[in-house]
């Protein structure tokens, strides 16, 4: 039986205001009423894309294992349990539950053998009932799902109300008695809690929030009829504060939200019921070092929270807390009133273990062995009074390691699932007549005892008209060692590769560039750029009769070098001008385009205290002048890229968690013409066959997935779905003949796809 009802809740008095935030650049001038584009169609149509065969190193060779939600304690007849989201190479992730009767020998339970779609979620439960909850992705549609079990060995799917399953994306849950509670947020920012009690399923919606706010579910906990949902609530694009909603009647009615603390700089990982109190764990900012330190708060009712003193690791511990590095407690797991947590930080190749006993006393109990990767985090739970089992992973994904920590701080590994792999991903695509240049980046992590380092590896490829890829060697090898590289092409074979490289002799980061005019011939070093350091190039194009590069640079002779918005020009791609600084303030030029009437337009951002503000500069002769249009001077945000045509320039922008599109014909007057919906994204626009295209993601209650946005005029944009294994975004789109080349991360779908023909005017 399914029922729906509104919650009896006190109204939220006012929207959260974050100190120091200003209106976004789309606040005052967006989508003129006369020409406002219609809302995107809810159903996503797919473009006929052809996958290109790519080298094997662009894909994972082993499984990908991501840890999900809670670690469930055993009881009589009920085993230990945790969940992984496991994806085989080139396939979507599927649900997988691991079980153990003693905490030492582990086996996998078959939860949904006939389920073939992608799934992301995890376990929630208690000794009476357990649930595997999360979100599935099939053919461009997201849907919340729940499998339930009484013994954690036999599972069956629960039919959730269609309107709840399709609208609310479940990301947390809890169990009390025989009831399971699922918490999810809709694209429309509504928060709902589903109550699953045997065959009876109903859901409750909580109070709405302000249009410019967002609310993310972090975790949930429950006992008897008391339920607490932990959320992070703030303005779109901002971190927000941690709050709790509470119910004392089994989810029928809910309180107004209550902040955990007034401190805005805390981070929370999760929540649990310890047997007499609710516990939230995470980290709090250390004012002396600037980093987060392990922290926790407890509450009897989920509304009034008290901070607890969590001790640091002992001075002689090999799990160190480095100055300025965030060290936090992970999600708590509870057994017999004792809460167990993993402490982690991005600099440590070990996990630290903490517990809080039933009397509220905290202890640091030791560490894992060195695991060969940084950012070790996960879940842990006691096996007996002297030992605890842990599931650990790097940065929370890719590889899961199961081990036991015990007497005399000993660590014993039991199982592994997945692998830590750094695959080559397409970092950029550069069009040229009849072919395309693709640059890939792979970052390798190498551990040497307790130390580790990351090394970028770059490669350049040519995608030809016959749909084949050919490597373009970097010679000398110095070309491959540059960082933040960008590529520009002109004619059939001219190509410029610009980036930065650390100079060991001068102990500074300096600009470097290379030019090649004939494929197969050696690269020629390019000179110039001026006496600048800390250069980061963002784009290089051939515009008219010259090459133009953009980015940021600092004066090497300055006492305190500051990166300022910069452009460089070259007639032949070999000899470059000194840096042309466009503004005295710190900032960056993200892109440069030609204006229809002649001249150049540079777009980017400037630093203004703790925020970035949009900026554009116009050049129609020798001087660059900053644009003073109101839409660029009254809010915060960045201009991310531009695309010019004979009728105007279309500019991509990002503000307050949304992507917007601006348009100008002269570089003086600017208008906001389009804004993505909440949860959707749009990358840098490019000119394509009779219009414009941009990469990104679209999501609604009815459809979701990686898309190519198409527009005939830069004003009305339509998302078109690109085939993928799972939900995600496209990273890049570039013109290729009458069609486009689309790139995405290989974990999402085929990394390179070609659409032979696009019609930006199609609705």
Please supply descriptive tags for the structure shown above.
763 residues; five-stranded mixed sheet; five-stranded antiparallel sheet; 2 helices; 1% helix; globular
Walk me through the structure.
The two termini are 40 Å apart. This protein has 763 residues and is mostly beta strands. It has 2 helices and 62 strands. The longest helix has 6 residues, at 162-167.
State the helix count.
2
Mean pLDDT: 89
The tally of beta strands, per DSSP, is 62
* Separation of the first and last Cα atoms: 40 Å
How much strand content do the residues show? Answer: over 45%
Report the uncertain regions: 1-22, 27-42
Sequence of strands across the biggest β-sheet: 1-15-14-13-12
Structural class: mainly beta
Q: What would you call the shape?
A: globular
C-alpha-based Rg, rounded: 27 Å
What portion of residues is helical? under 10%
Biggest sheet details:
5 strands, mixed
In short:
The chain is built from two helices and 62 strands.
List the helices and strands and how they pair.
Elements: E1 2-6, E2 8-9, E3 49-51, E4 64-72, E5 80-87, E6 93-100, E7 107-109, E8 118-125, E9 130-138, E10 141-149, E11 156-158, H1 162-167, E12 168-176, E13 179-186, E14 191-197, E15 200-205, E16 213-223, E17 226-235, E18 241-247, E19 253-254, E20 258-259, E21 267-273, E22 278-285, E23 292-299, E24 306-308, E25 327-329, E26 333-335, E27 338-345, E28 352-356, E29 362-367, E30 376-384, E31 387-394, E32 399-405, E33 411-418, E34 425-432, E35 435-448, E36 451-464, E37 469-472, E38 483-490, E39 494-503, E40 508-516, E41 524-529, E42 532-543, E43 546-555, E44 564-570, E45 575-578, E46 580-581, E47 587-594, E48 600-608, E49 611-619, E50 624-626, H2 630-633, E51 638-644, E52 649-655, E53 658-664, E54 671-675, E55 681-682, E56 686-688, E57 691-699, E58 704-711, E59 718-721, E60 732-736, E61 739-743, E62 752-755
């Amino acid at each position: 039986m399914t029922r729906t009802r509104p919650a009896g809740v006190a109204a939220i008095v006012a929207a959260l205001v974050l100190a120091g935030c200003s209106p976004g650049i789309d606040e005052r001038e967006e989508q003129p009423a006369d020409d406002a584009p219609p809302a995107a169609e809810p159903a996503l149509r797919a473009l006929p894309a052809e996958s290109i065969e790519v080298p094997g190193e662009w894909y994972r060779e082993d499984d990908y294992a991501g840890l999900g939600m809670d670690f469930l304690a055993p009881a009589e007849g009920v085993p230990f349990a945790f969940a992984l989201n496991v994806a085989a190479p080139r396939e979507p992730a599927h649900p997988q539950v691991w079980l153990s009767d003693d905490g030492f020998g582990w086996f996998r339970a078959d939860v949904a053998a006939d389920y073939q779609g992608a799934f992301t979620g995890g376990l929630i439960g208690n000794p009476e009932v357990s649930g595997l909850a999360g979100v599935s992705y099939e053919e461009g549609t997201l849907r919340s799902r729940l499998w339930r079990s009484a013994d954690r060995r036999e599972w069956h799917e629960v039919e959730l109300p269609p309107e709840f399953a399709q609208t609310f994306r479940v990301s947390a849950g809890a169990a009390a008695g025989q009831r399971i509670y699922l918490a999810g947020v809709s694209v429309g920012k509504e928060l709902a809690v589903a109550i699953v009690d045997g065959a009876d399923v109903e859901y409750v919606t909580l109070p709405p929030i302000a249009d410019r706010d967002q609310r993310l579910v972090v975790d949930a906990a429950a006992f008897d009829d008391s339920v607490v949902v932990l959320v992070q609530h703030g303005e779109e694009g901002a971190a927000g504060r941690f709050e709790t909603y509470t119910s004392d009647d089994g989810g029928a009615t809910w309180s107004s939200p209550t902040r955990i603390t007034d401190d805005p700089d805390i981070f929370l990982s999760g929540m649990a019921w310890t047997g007499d109190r609710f516990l939230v764990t995470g980290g709090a900012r250390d004012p002396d070092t600037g980093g987060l330190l392990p922290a926790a708060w407890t509450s009897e009712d989920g509304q009034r929270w008290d901070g607890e003193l969590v001790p640091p690791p002992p001075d002689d511990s090999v799990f160190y807390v480095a100055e300025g590095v965030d060290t936090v407690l992970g999600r708590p797991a509870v057994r017999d009133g004792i809460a167990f947590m993993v402490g982690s930080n991005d600099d440590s190749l070990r996990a630290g273990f903490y517990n809080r006993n039933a009397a509220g006393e905290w202890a640091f109990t030791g560490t894992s062995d060195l695991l060969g990767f940084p950012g070790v985090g996960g879940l842990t739970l006691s096996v007996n009074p002297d030992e605890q089992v842990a599931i650990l992973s790097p940065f929370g994904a890719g590889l899961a390691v199961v081990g036991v920590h015990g007497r005399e701080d000993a660590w014993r590994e039991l199982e592994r699932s997945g692998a830590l792999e750094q695959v080559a991903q397409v970092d950029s695509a550069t069009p040229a007549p009849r072919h395309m240049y693709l640059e890939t980046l792979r970052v390798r992590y190498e551990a040497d005892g307790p130390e580790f380092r990351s090394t970028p590896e770059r490669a350049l490829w040519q995608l030809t008209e016959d749909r084949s890829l050919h490597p373009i060697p970097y010679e000398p090898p110095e070309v491959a060692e540059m960082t933040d590289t960008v590529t520009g092409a002109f004619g059939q074979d001219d190509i410029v590769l610009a980036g930065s490289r650390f100079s060991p002799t001068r102990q500074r980061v300096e600009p470097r560039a290379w030019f090649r005019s004939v494929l197969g011939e050696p690269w020629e070093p390019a000179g110039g750029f001026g006496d600048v350091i800390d250069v980061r190039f963002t784009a290089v194009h051939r515009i008219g009769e010259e090459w133009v590069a953009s980015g940021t640079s600092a004066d090497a002779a300055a006492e305190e070098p500051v990166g300022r918005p910069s452009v460089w020009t070259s007639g032949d791609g070999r000899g470059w001008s000194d840096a042309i600084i466009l503004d005295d303030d710190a900032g960056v030029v993200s892109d440069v385009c030609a204006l229809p009437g002649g001249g150049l337009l540079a777009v980017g951002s400037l630093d203004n205290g703790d925020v970035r503000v949009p900026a554009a500069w116009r050049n129609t002769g020798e001087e660059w002048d900053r644009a003073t249009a109101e839409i660029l001077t009254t809010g915060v945000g960045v201009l991310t890229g531009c695309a010019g045509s004979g009728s105007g320039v279309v500019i991509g922008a990002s503000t307050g968690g949304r992507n917007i599109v601006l348009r100008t014909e002269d570089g003086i007057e600017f208008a906001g013409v389009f804004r993505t919906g909440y949860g959707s994204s749009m990358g840098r626009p490019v000119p394509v066959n009779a219009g414009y295209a941009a990469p990104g993601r679209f999501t609604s209650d009815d459809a979701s997935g990686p898309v190519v946005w198409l527009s005939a005029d830069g004003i009305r944009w339509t998302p078109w779905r690109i085939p993928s294994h799972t939900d995600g975004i496209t990273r890049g789109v570039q013109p290729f003949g009458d069609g486009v080349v689309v790139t995405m991360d290989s974990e999402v779908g085929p990394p390179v796809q070609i659409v032979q023909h696009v019609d930006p005017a199609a609705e």
